[in-house]
Each structure stands twice: as C-alpha cells, then as structure tokens.
Amino acid sequence: MALSATLLAAASLAKANATALGVCMFLLLIIYLIVTYARLSHVPGPFLASFTNLVRLRWVLTRKAQYVHIDLHKRYGQLVRIGPNVVSVGDPAEIQQIYGLTGHFIKSAFYPVLQPHAKGAAMPGLFNTQDEDLHRVMKKPIASIYSMTNLVSFESYVNSTMSVFFKELDRRFAETAEICDLGVWLQRFAFDVIGEITFSRRLGFLEGAQDVDGIMHSIWHHFEKAAPVGQVCWVDKLWNKNRMLAWLWPPPTSPIVRFATERADERKAKSPMEDSDLNNRDFLSRFIEAKSKDDKVPDWALTAWTTSNILAGSDTTAILLRTILYNLLRYPATMHQLQQELQEAADKGELSTDAVTWSEAKDLPFLDACIKEAGRLHPPFGLQLERVVPPEGAVICGKPFKAGTIVGINAWVAHRDESVFGSNASIWDPSRWLCEDEGQRKTMERSLLTVSPRKPVFSRYG
Questions:
Q1: What are the two backbone dihedrals, phi and then psi, of residue 401, each rounded to the nearest 5 degrees?
Q2: How far apart are CA 88 and CA 397, in angstroms?
Q3: Is 281 buried (19+), middle (13-18) or exposed (0-12) by CB count in 10 A?
C-alpha cells in the first residue's frame, strides 16, 4: 500500500514538473516572440516574416523572389521587414551609405554560403569573404589589372572568340535552317570569352557545342543551392561548413575550382620564356606576377582569382547579352534605332570593318544606352546584397537601426524606382539614358547597383 502511494506521489510530482516545464517553455517562447517582433517593429512587412526566416526561404524556392520583393515594396514602401532581423531597402539613395567605403557595413553570413569548395574546404574570394582584411589583401595586388585601360588590351581575345561564335552559328544554323537557341549559345560564348582572357584558351563550349566538364551546370547548381540556404545561414554552418562532417565526408572540389587549379598549375610549370610568349599576357599570367610581388597574398589566392573570373564574369556577361538581344527583339523600334546608329557610323567610316573596337563603341550613344538599360532592367543577382549595420547604428530612409541588423538593397527593386527612372521604370526604354538633363542622367547612374567599392573588380567587364 505504501509503495503504491509512493508511486502515485512520484507520478503526480512528475506530472506537475512536466506541466511547470511546459508553462515555462511556453512563456519563454512568448517572450522570445515579443522581443523578436519588437526589435524591428517600426518597419512594416509580412507579419510572419517578423518571426521566422522560413518566409523568405519560401520566396526564394519559388525562383521568383525578385518579383516578390518588388511587390512587397509597392505595398509597404521603401523599407520592408523580410525576416526577424532582416530589412529590404528600396531607396537607391541609400546605396552609398550601405555599400560605400565610408559606411562600414560589413557583409552578412549570406556570403560564405557562396564559397565553392576546394580540397575539402570552403574557398573565400573577393565577393564572398566577410573578412575585410583578407578582402583588401586579395584585391590590392590585382585591382589595376581590371582598370579599363588593361581590359581594353584583351580585345583581341574577345574578337577571336567572336569569330568562332559567328562561324559556329553560320555552320550549324544559317546553312542548315535549324532552330537556334540563342540564349544557350550566348552563354557558351561568354564562357569561352572568359576562358580566352583568363587562360589564353577557349574552354571549348562553342566548338563542341557542349557544357565542358559540366561547368555551366555546376555554376547553376551552385547558386540554385546557395540562394535558399543563404536565407537560413545556420544550415550552411551546420552542414556545408561543419568541420567534423567535412572530415568524415570531404565535399568534392567544384569543377570550376578544379579547372582553374589545373590551368594555374600548368602555367606555373612553364618557363619564364614560354610564359612571356603568350598573346599580350592573359589574366592568369598577370595574377601569377601579382602574387609573386606580394608575400601577404595566400597561396590559394591564384585559384580564387581565376575561379572568381569564371564564376562572376561568364554568367553576368551572358545575362547582359541575352537581356539586350531579347529586348531589342521584343521592342523592334529600338532594334531599328540601334541599326540606324550603327549604319550611320559605318557610313562615316567610324567603325572597323572586321570587329568594332571599344574606343569606337563607346562613342555610340544609343548602344551605350541599351547596355545600361539591360543592366538596369535585368540585374544578374535577384536577391538583396546583405550588409550588417555597424556598431554605431545607422539611420536608413529616416528610420534608426541598431547594430547587427541585416539590411540590403535588391537591384531589381532599386532599378524600378519610378521617382528616379520615371513612370515606365518597369519596361525597356533605352531612350531614358539619352535625356538632355545631365543631372537626371547622373542620378540614374548613381542609382544602379552595379560596381561599388565593395563589389568585385572583375564585374566591370560584364
């Protein structure tokens, strides 16, 4: 009888403890939700997004996050809370504060998610490292290589690949009347151009009409995985950047990294005489020279630089080319205007007969307008470029933000700001860049989220 009573008392006590624990956990959850909501309660946005990043993860999984962000800013204004500690900024006027050198806004935990793997470990680069000191060490030796003067010296490489591009189109489609998926071929062209200027050799996309070493698919898969994981960065730290898991199951080296490493090893094995014989010296030769002059640069930087060239240069260039051609075809009047400009320049003898040079092309105002409009209307990155508010805090769009708040601007949103680009900001209209108001043109140029001090220098040749 006594044993039965003891057991009943123990069961009753356990039940009471479980109830108390449940109540405590519930109260802690309520407190957490209140504190989480209160942190950015002054910023409007979807209610559920105030408590969990799963909301913005779902947007990314639809592959239409850029359009979701555009709609959110139309509904809520220039500031939208899209996560418990994340704010999307829509005002282009805030570009300088958030991304300029004087703002001290460091990159968020989103960026390491973008790092490819090499030899079982993540490899940081200029774009995806959070370490400001490492960024400076890696950028300083090569910054001059990406000056416009140096980039123009690579024209012969571009012209060589362009010749192959047109020959392949003639042979495979013009002479056979077969249907051509121009989008795919522009992607191949961009990859081979980057191969030429980086390694003095095309990668073989055009001649082989193929995805060499699965590089195109690898880049697509890389960003397809990184975009959603970047919304819940703890998953990346737990799975992709977990040292214990990497020791047990080393992640495979990215095909791009592997290719870049092999090319760099081949070049380093050449004699100085052989290397100097290369046509005008490609990026890899200049990278090797830059590395040899700076002891602070880590050994893996050579691979990181060449990998970044391929990752950043090929895709952005292809997107820009496809956007230009797509919209010229969709809006025939602009195609006619561009053709007329080119014909008039040719009739005046202002264009080379074989391949138009950069010095000639930069003096064609409507062509320049088409390029700017393509970069405005279809920026290559469809998510916000996240930064962290510095320790002193910040005032953005007139509202205060505490240190540690993640903020960022989605170019798809900023580039459609009607107060800057006009009431037709959502459509293709190159003529907006030809307006007589110089002040307005400069305002539009400053409102493009393209090349900022903290973006990789190699984005210029996109």
A1: -135, 135
A2: 11
A3: middle
How far is residue 56's CA from residue 8's CA, in Å, rounded to a whole number? 49
CB atoms within 10 A of CB 43: 22
The closest alpha carbon to 280, from 362, 376, 365, 157, belongs to 157
Helices (H), 53-212: 54-61, 65-76, 95-99, 132-139, 148-152, 155-169, 182-199, 205-208
| 117-118 vs 106-107, strand pairing mode | unpaired
Q: Is 407 helix (H, G, I), strand (E, B) or coil?
A: strand
- Token pair 């356990």 in the structure block, residue: 14
- In angstroms, the Cα distances linking 73 to 76, 81, 198, 310, 372 are 5, 10, 40, 33, 23
Of 66, 155, 129, 85, which Cα lies nearest the Cα of 301?
129
How deeply is 106 buried, as exposed, middle or buried, from its count of CB atoms within 10 A (0-12, 13-18, 19+)?
middle
Pairing of β 406-409 and β 86-89? parallel
Q: How far apart are the first and last CA of the chain?
A: 85
* Long-range pairs for 179-183: beta carbons < 8 A, 24 or more residues apart: 182/322, 182/325, 183/322
Series of mean pLDDT values for 10-residue runs along the chain (462 residues): 63 67 68 69 95 96 97 98 97 95 87 81 84 88 87 88 95 94 94 89 89 85 91 84 69 77 72 54 87 85 87 87 97 98 94 87 95 96 95 96 97 97 97 94 92 41 44
Q: What single letter denotes the amino acid at residue 81?
A: R
Strands, E assignment, 12-127 = 79-83, 86-89, 106-107, 117-118, 121-122
User: Tokens 């903020």 map to which residue?
Assistant: 407
User: What residue type is assigned to position 34 of the chain?
Assistant: I
Q: Where are the domains of the chain?
A: 38-105+384-462, 109-312
Its CATH class, for the domain covering 109-312, is mainly alpha
Q: Please, which residues have CB within 8 angstroms of residue 360's CB and are 6 or more apart in sequence?
A: 345, 350, 351, 352
Output phi, psi for 450, to 5 deg. Answer: -110, -85
Nearest to 142 by CA among 297, 266, 279: 297
By the 8 A CB rule, do 101 and 453 touch?
yes
Q: Which residues contact 268 (CB under 8 A, 6 or more apart)?
A: 288
pLDDT of residue 462: 43
CA distances from 47 to 69, 132, 146 (A): 15, 35, 45
209: which residues sit within 8 A by CB, 6+ positions away? Answer: 168, 172, 188
